[in-house]
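Consider the tokenized backbone below.
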């Protein structure tokens, strides 16, 4: 995590691009969806250690993706492959990719404080938080990397970058934690509000209010962080 000059406000940037040295070549003719779970940048070692989650309709599609990933000139090594959910065809892949001329390295060099992406149909969609005075130079550099589309920036919403851990009050966090541990949100529900109130020592009305307020914050924060990807998903329906 990087510190940002208080006089240089952080902003959200959103963009889409085709990057021939990365996902555009790898996902060509493969119907697979990808998003990055983590990326650790090591410029002094000239590589990025990334973990991704993939989803496809068939396991054979995922295997074809892995074959192309191994052959990519941008990928240095595949560290591990893990089945997350075999029935849903969800897999996790950890790999090293080169540092030079990658989107993640460009964002890193322009002081990105947060980054999310989604890759589908050869198009990489990215949401990041960068200092305001880095926007123009970032855009120019991305233009040189590939075919940049739909680049835009927006001011951060009031609570849009506050994690739920700090946004929830202690009682809201306790209420939601206890509800989760006791199966209140399971389908079918394993415990009802009255019994959950007895466990927490709160009245039904107070517990219901803490659960409602806490979940409202969680949904709002999740929505703010992922709105770009939600809108894109709905457009592709």
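A designed sequence for it:
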């Amino acid at each position: 995590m990087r510190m940002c000059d208080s006089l240089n406000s952080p902003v959200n940037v959103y963009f889409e691009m085709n990057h021939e040295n990365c996902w555009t070549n790898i996902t060509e003719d493969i119907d697979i969806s990808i998003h990055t779970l983590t990326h650790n940048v090591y410029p002094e070692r000239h590589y990025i250690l990334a973990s991704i989650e993939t989803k496809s309709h068939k396991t054979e599609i995922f295997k074809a993706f892995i074959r192309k990933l191994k052959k990519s000139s941008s990928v240095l090594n595949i560290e591990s492959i893990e089945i997350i959910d075999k029935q849903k065809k969800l897999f996790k892949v950890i790999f090293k990719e080169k540092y030079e001329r990658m989107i993640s390295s460009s964002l890193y060099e322009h002081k990105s404080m947060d980054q999310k992406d989604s890759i589908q149909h050869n198009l990489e969609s990215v949401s990041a938080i960068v200092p305001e005075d880095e926007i123009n130079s970032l855009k120019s550099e991305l233009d040189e990397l590939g075919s940049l589309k739909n680049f835009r920036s927006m001011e951060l919403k009031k609570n849009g970058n506050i994690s739920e851990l700090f946004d929830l009050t202690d009682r809201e966090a306790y209420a939601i934690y206890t509800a989760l541990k006791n199966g209140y949100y399971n389908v079918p529900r394993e415990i009802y509000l009255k019994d959950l109130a007895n466990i927490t020592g709160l009245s039904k009305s107070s517990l219901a209010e803490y659960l409602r307020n806490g979940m409202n914050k969680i949904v709002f924060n999740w929505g703010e962080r992922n709105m770009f990807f939600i809108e894109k998903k709905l457009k592709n329906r």
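The chain has two domains: 18-153, 164-235.
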